[in-house]
User: Fold this.
Amino acid sequence: MAGIQQVSVFLENKSGRLAEVTQILAEGGINLVALSIAETSDFGILRVICDQPVKAAKTLREGGFSVGETEVLAVQVPHRPGGLAEVVGVVNPLNVNIEYLYAFAGHTGQDAVVVMRMENARNQETAEALQQAGYALLTPEQVYTA
Assistant:
């Protein structure tokens, strides 16, 4: 399984930090495909899928940001009521927690892409179960150019 690389950026919860990150990425010629922000009152974690994850992480580190790189799954999900419930229903019997997930629309509008991170590095096991159930796991090339 070819994993999708996600860049995670630690952000202090203060005005202008997101603008700094997006400006650095823009100046680096890095295209954002999907993102999510989880926040508390003091800080946030910006999770980014982009077309050049290695370059994005390096560029952000050079800009003074604390950055992590994580492998995630990108699953093609029917864009209709119940589509996500069906995917989660495949994962549930594995007795593995989904640490987080977020979604974005695919090229055609017929499908959505769900990005998920499984606990304890159980991505491979989850990927196999999803594929056996007939779900397409997207390659880095498919996701980074979405």
In short: The mean pLDDT is 90. The chain has two domains: 4-70, 73-144.
